[in-house]
Write a structure and sequence with these properties.
5-stranded parallel β-sheet; 5 strands; alpha/beta
Length: about 170
């Protein structure tokens, strides 16, 4: 485990890394420390249990779990901790990630998992940042700046579309 991580990122397989890297990128953009590992709810449940047990003393405040298919990882993690858990359903070949989404979002009462869209690992990172920002004014200010920048970029795109028309806009 990395030194002083605030967010724990765990994925069911290293094949999920390309998607889950988006979580790490946004956390790095906000200078938030994290730990990232692989642990399967089905293939290595003892490893998952050990990782979650160790988060109690690590300083981790939010957990993000990415998994595809049966996608039980986030739910298993939520059953083992009182920390907020964010699930990232990973797109699968068989059902395009619908199986992952339904497995992640349908938790029984008492075992909540905040679930973002299929492959929406960046949103999971942003949600973790928002959770952390409730106790960190500096981080909250960074979020406000980030969202203003997003709004300004969208406004510029709309102005450019109006100026060029859709055909020329699509050519660029």
């Amino acid at each position: 485990m990395n030194k002083n991580p605030k967010v724990g990122i765990i994925m069911g397989s290293d094949s999920d890394l390309e998607v889950m890297a988006e979580t790490a990128k946004i956390l790095e953009e906000f200078d938030i420390s994290y730990d990232m590992t692989v642990g399967s709810a089905h293939r290595s449940p003892k490893l998952v249990h050990k990782y979650i047990t160790n988060t109690k003393n690590s300083g981790i405040k939010v957990l993000i779990a990415g998994a595809g298919g049966a996608a039980h990882l986030a739910g298993v993690i939520a059953s083992l901790t009182t920390l907020p858990v964010i699930g990232v359903p990973i797109k699968t070949k068989t059902l395009e990630g619908l199986d992952s989404l339904l497995s992640t979002v349908n938790m029984p009462p008492g075992v909540p998992v905040a679930t973002v869209g299929i492959n929406a690992a960046k949103n999971a990172g942003i949600l973790a940042i928002q959770i952390l920002a409730t106790a960190d004014k500096n981080l909250e200010e960074k979020l406000i700046t980030y969202k203003k920048k997003m709004s300004e970029e969208t406004k510029k795109r709309g102005e450019k579309l109006s100026e060029l028309g859709f055909k020329k806009y699509l050519e660029k």
